[in-house]
Amino acid sequence: MTQPTEPQGGPTGPGPSDTHPGWASASTGPSAAPAGGKDPGSRSLWAAGGTMFAGVLMGVAGIVGALQGIAAIADDDVYTRIGDYVFSFDLTTWGWIHLLLGIVIAVAGFGIIKGQDWARGAGIGLAALYIVEYFLFLPYAPVWSVIAIAMGVFVIWALATDSSSSA
Fold it and tell me: What's the pLDDT score for residue 1?
């Protein structure tokens, strides 16, 4: 069986009898998906949704980090060291680190939500810095640090795989 070289509906487009069960349909509806069941545009939709969620995560994590920083600056008894690690900072120093990095991360997160081009690259770099920060903060808040590291990895993945915005 050979495929026709011209649409049967003429120059204006396909007619109602132009579909064959083995051929791809020219429609743009849900039946236009390939036989594998995956729409080629669904990856970009997932990546765009992941990017929006990454922006929200960065905004919330930045605000929470800033609040953690304020709490650590205000009172050194907020966090207790768990275990003995090679790397250690004074809690007031950690407070300033969390406060400043939290503000910058929140600004980048809001930039990602608004679709700013600069925010995607800055978000990847800041998420990497965020992962290092919480790795070093493990002695003070181990459970939250592991959660924060996982969030940072997700943010990097989401921002790196989204190709829907112009670069």
Answer: 52
